[in-house]
Input
Amino acid sequence: MCGIVGYIGNKKATPILINGLLSLEYRGYDSAGIAVIENNEICVLKDKGRVANLRKIPEIDTLESSIGIAHTRWATHGKPSKENSHPHLDNSKQFAVVHNGIIENYNELKEFLCSKGYKFLSQTDTEVIPNLIHYYYTNGISDDDKFLRAVKSAIDDLKGSYAIEVISNLYPDRVIVVRKDSPLVIGTSKEENFISSDIPAILSYTKNFYLLDDYEYAVVYNDHIQFFDNSLIEHSKAIKSIEWDATAAEKNGYEDYMLKEIYEQPNSIRETIGTRFKLGEKCCFDDIDINKEYLKTVNKIYIVACGTAMHAGLVGKVAIEKLCNIPTGVDIASEFRYRNPIIDENTLCIFISQSGETADTIAALKLAKEKKAKTIAISNVIGSSITRVADYTIYTHAGPEIAVASTKAYTSQIILLVILAMYFAENLESCKKDVLDNLKVDILDLPSKIEAVLNEINGIKEFANKIYTEKDMYFLGRGNDYYVAMEGSLKLKEISYIHSEAYASGELKHGPIALIENDVTVIGILTDSNLVDKSISNIQEVVSRGAKTLVITNQRLTNNNFDFIINVPETNNLISPVLSVIPLQLLAYYISKNKGLDVDKPRNLAKSVTVE
Ligand code: F6R
Output
């Protein structure tokens, strides 16, 4: 949540800061602001609303400064307003701060500062930070590295999570940054340095990055950067070169990122498969040191994630249990971390996070490590926080996902989990070779099958036109189809604001059927040949009660009275969600478009949930 950008170099800072904010807007878009040092004073321009509003402030084009910090906000403390927007200044207007995260003890700190005469202009937790820096700067800090020491003293008082940038007109040649549990990267180039919450926002300027660690400080000048540990002892740091292509984070002619990302799925799946297996060969995971001896000791697997990533985990669980015969549980990270799960050294925990920055998933991972489980992170973002905590990381390689609603990351997560399950099964010899060989053929066929689904979208558009004004919708399925129903329902509510629920078809009679009345929309997913007759009966039950139905299926349905049927190609049931979810992603997309909503930036949501 919240995006931060910074620049120091030999060019005008403002256009670079604004460009960065536009790329980061998916992290928060209820207000935006910048601070630069202009004529020896800090100049702050900020406003409620999108970055577009910030751009309209007339002074913005007059700024000449080549140092600045910027922020796009997702409100936590204090409603979206100009006063609550970042950057925040201290009372003397000598220190400006932008902050991503939450300061849990800000009330206490505010009381302390008020007792020292400081005044507060906003309701934010962040405003304590510049004032604390000022307090320490003017109270007993020695002259050596006074700015850095004052920042460090202020940071030492904070409880919570933060990625922070600080500038001061007393030190117009540097930006100080520090992080804990919130992402921050520094991109470096000749005579200029860039700071950002994530890599894609500054990828067009450089491919060389420093990934800041928790409690690590960087003092960023235009031509060099100093790194310090939590005791302010200076150290050197390795650069990481990122191979992503900057154009991968652009829209390339698509109206919205979400549509582009839906259409990228044939390719993102190819990238996820990568070199992990070839036909006739065993699966290979060079990135994890998990062998047969260790796997034989594993008596339980937990898959832990949030939202869509958790839905991918549910599909992964089915594959692991079927192919490896290891009991596997799927947990929502925010529940897992507080429920004292039973974990020991015989437990393997897999954490899935597209962004790799989700606060609850990272906290759950830390808990599992404390309890001695082996941990694997599945992430899409190279060098993200989760990858630096887990014992092993496997990357989905789906390419940058910018739209808030996750699409291609979900299908890549599923495929990666299924390949991982095959790898475990091959090590454990828990599954017949021909079963795995057939599954590999089916996985390799997926990209062309996805293309086939994407070429036949008229039915979905027609159905979206018919139902986009509805208030409620229901999704039904059994087995993996239920998990796809959950994902379809989440996509719909996220970007169309239509209330929807997903139910396991068999649960219908245990309560939800009471909600079915004339003309209500029910979407059924039927792809499992073993369960199709039972699922059809459940959908017939809602048809008899007047529901309008859309059925997504890879089965030949005869003698049915469903209103709409969308056919998807047949495949192995373990991976069928990768095909059946695509009409649901498109349905949510077209309903949202019909309603005239902002598909990529749905209200109240942010791409990366870095706070609890
Ligand atoms: C839904 C969506 C969210 C994320 C969830 C976890 O479309 O994108 O539900 O899946 O916030 O995010 P990551 O995977 O970044 O941990």
User: Anything to note?
Assistant: The longest strand covers residues 171-180. The chain has three domains: 3-248, 251-453, 458-594.
